[in-house]
Amino acid sequence: MEELIKTIWSNETWLWSLGIISILSFVASLVFIPYLIVRMPADYFSAEKRHKTPWADQHIIIRTVLITLKNCLGIVLVILGLAMLVLPGQGLLTLFIGLICLNFPGKYRLEKWLIQQKNIRRSIDWLRQRAGSEPLNYE
Predict the structure, then answer these.
(1) Is residue 139 part of a domain?
(2) pTM of the model
(3) Which residues cross the membrane (predicted)?
């Protein structure tokens, strides 16, 4: 670990790269995350089971491409969210949106549990209220 820290501090390219990534992820989180939260349907968390995706009736190839792209976006957001826990940005919200984009067994139950967490719920409610969106139904 010490060697890694020494290598990073002695390499100017690494420092600039980390700085640029940090700034870009911060700006992207300020723009992209609130946009996604505001566009989320108000009843997303009120159903017993997950909602049908808009592309569920599309051709299998189109559906597969869209699901793959959505999962890639989810992975990027989860990684950025983890990084933003120590870098500037909205780490918890970014992680949450990243998890929503991913497909895995038990995801909906995990999302419903996460949304019940006080800090995440308060942040989402504040963003939606500020944008004039209908509040999320949690039950």
Answers:
(1) no
(2) 0.57
(3) 14-39, 60-86
